Amino acid sequence: MKKNIIALLTVALFTSLSLFATVTTETLPDAKNLTLNTSIAGINYMALTQDAIGGNTVAAYNTVIAHPVSDKTITSSANTGTIAYLNVLSNRRTGFKVTMTATALAGTSGNNYKINYTVTAGSNATFNTANGSSNVNNTVSSSNLTGLTGYSYAVSAQVNAAEYAAALEDNYTGTVTFTYSAI
Predict the structure, then answer these.
(1) SS3 call for 102
(2) pLDDT in tens, 92-146
(3) Taking Cα atoms as reference points, which of 62, 88, 70, 91 lies closest to residue 141?
């Protein structure tokens, strides 16, 4: 009889549990997406300064532009050495090119005498004022940038020694122009 009671209680227990337990097939929600967007503005900076840029950040660029160079007095026919740094900071993916042109030193008091010179930026870019538009190695450039990058090119000048020695008494002025363009 004990066995019957245990069997009866077991059947009753399972029956009552199955009455209260409901099995449902739950539908789970689909995955939801959150799309993030941003836009990075182009940074295409260029300056002539006393010092070379010391890093690949806007802060490093801002440090060097605190000491700009806009003129330099030539006092002899010797090479000037570094008179400025052409600093470029860019994040342009395709890169940049800076083209250098120059005008000969010309008298400011009406004389027609000119003193030619060669200006150099970096190790390869030169412009000789005697050659004018036939200068072909007058650019510095960088392509396929992978991030914000700072570049510094030392700028120097070498005047034509014979023309300098034979020059008429006067004040002479010439201009070196650096033009930035995207590649």
Answers:
(1) strand
(2) 999 999 999 999 999 999 899 999 999 999 999 999 999 987 888 999 999 999 9
(3) 88
Q: How long, in residues, is the chain?
A: 183
Q: Is residue 130 part of a domain?
A: yes
Q: Which amino acid is at 12?
A: A
Instruction: Supply the DSSP symbol for 183.
Output: -
What's the whole-number mean pLDDT along residues 153-163?
97
Assess contact for 159 and 90: CB atoms under 8 A. no
Which residue bears the tokens 């002479």?
172
Residue 15 lies in a domain: no
Residue whose C-alpha is closest to residue 153's, from 139, 133, 137: 139
> Residue 95 CB: number of other CB atoms within 10 A?
14
Question: In the chain, what is the greatest distance between 2 CA atoms, to the nearest angstrom?
Answer: 137
Its pTM stands at 0.80
Residue 162 in any domain: the answer is yes
Look at the chain and report how many structural domains it folds into. 1
Residue 3 has pLDDT above 60, yes or no: yes
